[in-house]
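Regression check, zinc ion case 177:
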Amino acid sequence: MGELLPIIQLGDPILRQKANLVENIKDERIQKLIDDLTATVAKANGVGIAAPQVAESLRLFIVASRPNPRYPNAPEMEPTAMINPKITAHSTEMVKGWEGCLCIPGIRGRVPRSQKIEVEYTDRNGKLQKQELTDFVARIFQHEYDHLDGIVFLDKVESTLDIITEQEYQKQVISNT
Ligand code: ZN
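Current build output:
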């Protein structure tokens, strides 16, 4: 099992940097980082985490959708490391949905995202993967992908009226779904 890593918070300049390509996926340090990120996102009740969130400016993230107290309706999937990811196509249809971020505790925002995307990434074994993602998992991918370019979900909220506190989110949104 991986170790828990400290998650940096909004304001740390690393979150605003463009992350670097991962050169050698088989490197022990990269493999350990994947294990540590997987453990860290599970412990934090997240559904995804990108390397810059733990102060590693690398193009790598984990998508780990599963129902948990922060996202009770999330679909279940195996945590997947996605390395040097790309979005190769996206639907013009945009959907607004609630997001939070482990680097921005206490805040939720309604963010427009493409409903469907086609992606490519290298997996932890060095194999190129191509997938079509939809709905919530597509949303996670787009959120994590933005972290690699120094973008956070608040940058993509259309109106400050679409931002609420975690406490109100729990009250208004989760209790009504
Ligand atoms: Zn985030």
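Comparison notes: Helices lie at 28-43, 135-148, 166-172. The chain has one domain: 13-174. No diff flagged against the previous build.
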